[in-house]
Amino acid sequence: MVTSPNDGLSSPRKTSAINPLTWLLRNQGNWLPPLLGIGGFLLIWQLTSAFGVTRLPSPSSLFTEERTRILIFYPFFDRGGLDKGLFWQTFASLGRVAQGYTIAALVGIAVGITVGLKPTLNRAFDPLFQFLRMVAPLAWVPIALVVFQKNQPAAIFVIFITAVWPILINTAEGVRQIPQDYRNVALVLQMSKGRFFSKVLIPSALPYIFTGLRISIGLAWLAIIAAEIVMPGTVGIGFFIWDAYQQNYVGEIVLGVIWIGAIGLILDRLMVWLQTRIAAGQ
Amino acid sequence: MTALVDVQNVEKNFPLSGGGNYLALKGIDLEIRKGEFISLIGHSGCGKSTLLNMIAGLDLPTGGTVLLEGEAVKRPGPDKMVVFQNYSLLPWLTVRQNIALAVDEVMPDLDRSERDSVIEEHLEMVGLTPAASKLPAQLSGGMRQRVSIARALAIKPKLLLLDEPFGALDALTRGNLQEKLMQICNEHELTAVMVTHDVDEAVLLSDRIVMLTNGPGSKIGGILEVDIPRPRARLTVVHHPSYYSLRSEIIYFLNRQKRVKQWQARPHKVLPRHGLEKVNLDLGFIPLAACAPMAVAEAKGFFAKHGLDDVQLVRETSWRGVVDGLVDNTLDAAMMPSGMPTWMTAGGHGGPPLPIVSALTISRNGNEVTLAKRLAEQGVSTVEDYRAWLGSHEREPHRIGIVHPASMHNLLLRYWLAANGIDPDKDVHLQTLPPAQMLADLKDGSIDGYCIGEPWNFRAASSGHGVPIVGDLEIWSGHPGKVLGAREDWALAYPNTHIALTKALLEACRYCADPAHWQEMGELLSDRRYLGIKADLIRFSGQPGDSNAFAPHGEPHHLFFGAGLNRPSRSEHLWILTQLARWAEIPFPRNYVEILERVCSVGVFSTAARELGLEDVSYQRSGIELFDGRPFNPEDPIGYLNEVSLHRDFSIAEIPIGQPRTISA
């Protein structure tokens, strides 16, 4: 519908609600720059591929090549074995991440609280934590394989060991950072340990714990690739990429990478959403 | 009334990270009765919050004990609930939940509905029922502190401890909350201890105010009883006669603490130079027209000329500051009222007698009695009028401001009142006020008048708030006004410095006596370092063209220099001793001859005058006779005392001042 001149009299807000086009135009500052940025990036990629500067397939080839086109449009196929759609590959990886991450969260929060409450323990273990934190996920893979002998538990261990440090360190910091005022309130009211834990400690440290959880989910997702790449014969997005590399399907690698980025982004947003829901009012 | 809390000889030592200890508090003794409201006041870092925390049990003393109802406080508990400065509400709980947290914890025996009614009652008490479901972040600071107070009161503590509860609030909110707290305390007969920075808050809320000295090793510097009846309202408190004296007492205390701290922060080495034992001096003075010689000696370089290279003039706001400065050795010497050397030597300042020497009379005259405009409007223009007016206004309190009990203002005013049939203690009340406070008090009507030196009389007259009624020229023309005073032990330790100082000031006095310099002196004194008021308000003499109300009475004749003017006079100091004894400020010393001999450093003055070639100024003055014509015979002071018609019950006693002793440094 064409806006009649009379509409100018009603509130601008109402007009924008009625007409999405007007809204888009008014808010172009929000969506235009990212669109231009991504578009520009794709364009350069397309051009460099087209002129043979790199051997990377161009973005458009993901749709023109048959293998990748099928993978894009049919994520749910399952031909048995390792030949599965991207959804199932991702699902398998996410399953491992979920297991490793859950263990990491439980252990990280528990140890973090203990360490945060006891300065002596903190001094004893902090150097160790800081040291282990610096070891890259890939370096854990051979150790995990030696210790667990099997692919599945080893992968979960790698995820756990990568994800646990930010949770642990942030939780400990959150507990240490409980304002003296809150502790004083608990002291003056002679709160029991359990009540202090549930009424003061956890709510107060919650923002820190969530920061740790959010950093860790990203790390866990990063680690899955490292864990799966070197674990032949497992279904998962990591091995999918490795497999594609072995068979020289460069287009599949690119597609896998895009897929991983998108999932990581979604996981991160999910944690942010969860944080705002649970830690509301702080 | 029994002691609810008993703080016994408490000491607190904090270990420092770099090794060693910081002694925060030492030797604190305090009894808090049931139903009492106590304020702890002092500068930052004086340990007042530490003391509160020890009463709360949040911190344990390293020495001594804190007893609550006879039992030692070993740990915190809900019976001594704390209201913290930053409210300490849990931000993830609503107002009601925050209060409920405390109530549930402390009163588990009550059932749910009883606990709920306790919570609602206290929400109601602080007027927060409408905000009960809000989170603290949605409330203003004042509302948060109300929640905190409600939480504290809901658990019915024996003792309420408040740590600067209103410190972070704006003035309006603070005022409202103070009223609220006062009302709640009255209704529930709470016992409370509050830490505060705010002098007005302390006076308004407290029954007693505990003033703490600076750390390290803070002690209780004084406890003030606030005798303002309850229930109190801000406006009536402000107009209560005790209010300003309590307030100025606390402010004086805090300023004194600050000054001592500043003094301690500076290096204090005795600098000998130019054959003088000490050339770095701190000299106390009060901003008055009579301080001109001090200012001139500094500005015209007379101190430096006589070898005193590093003289600091320390401006005190009241004479009490000068007394304390000499007592605790933060001042080397000071300009002081002429009665102060004998008064301190006789122990009038309350401590053991402290021999003070005076080698120079700096000024004479310059004082006047001013009455408030409202009295003049009711026809009071002479002392007879005032006597009649007092008779017809018997029921009101009549207060007249003086600057210090040992000042000539007090003695002359009393002499004048008494000679005119007004008892200076029974018919009126003479109140010691800092000079700068007088005019404000005269304006708001809390005093009838005052007796003080310039520029305060001329200021009152020129601003229309007061009318001069009598000048010192009509009471005792040429009376000693301000003198130079120093501790005897100081004078003995630095004899040449003492002479140099006397020389510098005597030369400055000569400069000040020349009317040609008066305008320049007025401009000099108007500087912020000295009086900080407009130069044309500072006068050393009456001037043609003065308003009629001003001229008929004694114009301020400051005498700074002349034959017999500057030499310390034993008979004048003796007259002062008789008057101090007459009004029972001190007993009359049986050993007055010894005291006068020690106080009047005639030798120092004579040496100084001779070295300056000013021998002619050292002649004795003639006898002392005041306006009523009663002669003073220095041979028989006790006879003179017995003769005066009106006096208090005075005593005669030996004042033990020991042998002259030098500083044992």
Features:
heterodimer; A: 282 residues; mainly alpha; 0% strand; B: 665 residues; alpha/beta; five-stranded mixed beta sheet; 38% helix; elongated
What can you see in these coordinates?
The complex is a heterodimer of chains A (282) and B (665). Chain A is mainly α and 282 residues long. Chain A has helices at residues 12-18, 20-26, 28-50, 61-64, 66-73, 86-117, 119-133, 137-148, 151-176, 180-188, 193-229, 237-246, 250-278. Chain A starts with 11 loop residues before the first helix and ends with a helix. Chain B is elongated. Chain B has 25 helices and 22 strands. In chain B, helix 2 packs across helix 3, helix 2 (95-106) packs parallel to helix 4 (141-154) and helix 20 (495-513) crosses helix 24 (602-611). Helices cover 38% and strands 19% of the residues of chain B. In chain B, the strands form 5 sheets. Chain B has a 6-stranded mixed beta sheet with strand order 6-7-8-3-9-10, with helices on both faces. Mean pLDDT of chain B is 83; it is low at 544-554. Classes of the chains: A mainly alpha (282), B alpha/beta (665). Chains A and B meet through helix 10 and helix 11 of A and strand 6 and helix 2 of B.
